[in-house]
Request: fold
Amino acid sequence: MKVILGMGCDRGTSQQTLETTVDLALQEAGLARDAIHALATIDKKNDEAALLAFSAEHGWPLNFYSAAQLSTVEVPNPSEVVRKYMGTPAVAEAAAMLAANTGIENLLLEKIKYRGVDNKNATVSIVRLHNDQG
Reply:
């Protein structure tokens, strides 16, 4: 099975916090890192150093979507805090579904949130690629 990880994080989140959050999400979904096909997030994160480094280090493409694009996706966990700061009620879940070109039926893991030792929050959701039969 191949999956897309939707990623969200506070500004300045460390790569270690991202790594830990991804590992926790994969563990909860019963998946290994080799299932990851790509990452997805909001375009406001296109200069987030740890996210760019994480993507590059593992060779995972990183897809960016605008708040307008993300706000069109129905998600199980919309957030008014995210809407206030990002202009969309969801980043991780919505970005993963857009990147996978699918809907909520292929959402394997709703967003999980983790606060790292850097005191920054990261969120990850996991969506199965819609055309994947594995």
The chain has five helices and five strands.
